[in-house]
């Protein structure tokens, strides 16, 4: 495209698909590291290994209306962690969003496993979407031929988080319970909340509901260790039911048995109570646990990463790396 100073702008017209594909290959050929080793598209009906072809239709209602849901699974040491829990939540979100899957659950699961194997990667993230489908630019997808399923493996490095971060209270309104409890693609509030935090030198933000209770972070759950040594997680009635934090709650009683924690429970905390806890943390798939040491420029506890936070982090990380097979689904790689 030749860019002029005004009306003399001349937009290039691609004369053929081969010319456009050559341009796309030129773009991806300059990338030092290929971040997307494999993608699946139900529109194409298979797995795509060429990044130039990892596209979705512009008239997909997930694109122009935000009518879609998604979820994520961690790929670590050749296993997909908590795949079934994430897939169950994915389909629950789809039901709330009134999107029917083009395949039964067993087929979706098989596609994700085959996709991970085709990527030949043993560490990264697997993200997948269910869209109401392509077909037109109307408000609803009633006249669209079918819903669509997309998934991509992302070559993404991550490790256990041991450094603490700062957070702020978000001024961006949080989603209503209907939309907060389904993992849908309408993430503009989440994006603006995260950007607000970064602009203020913080890692992320904390949402507080209209009653003054702690809700969640922009794409993570939040958990607390009180001065009475209880692990407390906010109820899921107004926020997303986090698969990773639910697994943490299942693992935490091990610390109770060791006498390190006095209890594990769901509970609502007001801002004043939350800022007075001994330790605080974010919990989410790609972290999986991130210590929080300062909130709105006020130290949490003594302002350092707490011992119990790190013990919980160790429990969760060990479970991801070498936990029971019921939570780690092996990927069927082929030599």
Automatic annotation (TrEMBL):
Enzyme nomenclature, EC number: 4.1.3.38
Pfam families on file: Aminotran_4
Record key words, sorted: Aminotransferase, Folate biosynthesis, Lyase, Pyridoxal phosphate, Transferase
InterPro entries: Aminodeoxychorismate_lyase_IV, Aminotrans_IV, Aminotransferase-like, BCAT-like_C, BCAT-like_N, Class-IV_PLP-Dep_Aminotrnsfr
Cofactor list: pyridoxal 5'-phosphate
Keyword set includes Transcription: no
Extent of the signal sequence: none
GO BP, one annotated term: amino acid biosynthetic process
MF term (GO), any: 4-amino-4-deoxychorismate lyase activity
Statement: the UniProt record of this protein carries the keyword S-adenosyl-L-methionine: no
Superkingdom field: Eukaryota
Broad class of enzyme this protein falls into: lyase
Catalytic reactions of this protein: 4-amino-4-deoxychorismate = 4-aminobenzoate + pyruvate + H(+)
Annotated metabolic or biological route of this protein: Cofactor biosynthesis; tetrahydrofolate biosynthesis; 4-aminobenzoate from chorismate: step 2/2
CDD domains, per the entry: ADCL_like
Quaternary structure and interacting proteins, as annotated: Homodimer.
Similarity-based family: Belongs to the class-IV pyridoxal-phosphate-dependent aminotransferase family.
The protein's name in its UniProt record: aminodeoxychorismate lyase
Natural source organism: Trema orientale (Charcoal tree)
Species classification: Eukaryota, Viridiplantae, Streptophyta, Embryophyta, Tracheophyta
């Amino acid at each position: 495209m030749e860019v002029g100073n005004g009306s003399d702008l001349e937009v290039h017209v691609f004369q053929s698909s081969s010319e456009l594909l050559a341009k796309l290959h030129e773009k991806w050929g300059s990338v030092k590291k290929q971040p997307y080793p494999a993608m699946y598209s139900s529109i194409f009906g298979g797995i795509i290994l060429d990044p130039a072809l990892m596209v979705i239709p512009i008239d997909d209602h997930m694109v122009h209306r935000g009518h879609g849901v998604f979820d994520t699974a961690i790929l670590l040491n050749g296993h997909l962690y908590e795949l079934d829990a994430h897939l169950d939540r994915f389909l629950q979100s789809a039901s709330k969003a009134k999107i029917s899957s083009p395949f039964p659950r067993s087929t979706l699961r098989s596609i994700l496993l085959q996709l991970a194997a085709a990527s030949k990667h043993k560490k990264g993230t697997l993200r997948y979407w269910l869209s109401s489908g392509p077909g037109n630019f109307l408000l609803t997808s009633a006249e669209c031929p079918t819903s669509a399923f997309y998934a991509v493996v992302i070559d993404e490095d991550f490790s256990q988080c041991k450094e603490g971060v700062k957070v702020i209270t978000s001024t961006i309104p949080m989603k209503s319970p209907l939309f907060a409890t389904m993992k849908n693609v309408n993430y503009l509030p989440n994006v603006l909340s995260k950007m607000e935090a970064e602009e203020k030198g913080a890692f992320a933000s904390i949402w507080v509901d209209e009653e003054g209770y702690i809700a969640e972070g922009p794409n993570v759950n939040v958990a607390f260790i009180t001065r009475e040594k209880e692990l407390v997680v906010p109820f899921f009635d107004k926020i997303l039911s986090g698969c990773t934090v639910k697994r943490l709650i299942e693992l935490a009683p091990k610390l109770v048995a060791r006498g390190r924690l006095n209890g594990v429970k769901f509970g609502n905390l007001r801002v004043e109570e939350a800022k007075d806890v001994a330790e605080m943390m974010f919990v989410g798939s790609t972290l999986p646990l991130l210590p929080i040491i300062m909130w709105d420029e006020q130290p949490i506890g003594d302002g350092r990463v707490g011992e119990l936070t790190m013990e919980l982090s160790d429990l969760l990380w060990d479970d991801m790396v070498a936990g029971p097979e019921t939570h780690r689904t092996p990927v069927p790689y082929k030599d």
